[in-house]
User: Which sequence fits this backbone?
């Protein structure tokens, strides 16, 4: 893979930060949820955010 431009790097950092915030918020919502189905939905969404963040982080390791 070719090197990232400065703009691409900044965009990646922004997206990674956004997924990190989403992950934390969704986990917080899950811990407060009473309905088991809603709780599971938040947990699943939080995991998806974490997975997306990790996938984007892989661009820094290439």
Assistant:
């Amino acid at each position: 893979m070719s090197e990232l431009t400065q703009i691409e790097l900044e965009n990646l950092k922004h997206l990674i930060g956004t997924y990190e915030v989403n992950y934390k918020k969704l986990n917080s919502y899950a811990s407060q949820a009473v309905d088991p189905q809603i709780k599971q939905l938040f947990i699943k969404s939080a995991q998806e955010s974490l997975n997306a963040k990790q996938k984007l982080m892989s661009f820094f390791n290439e």
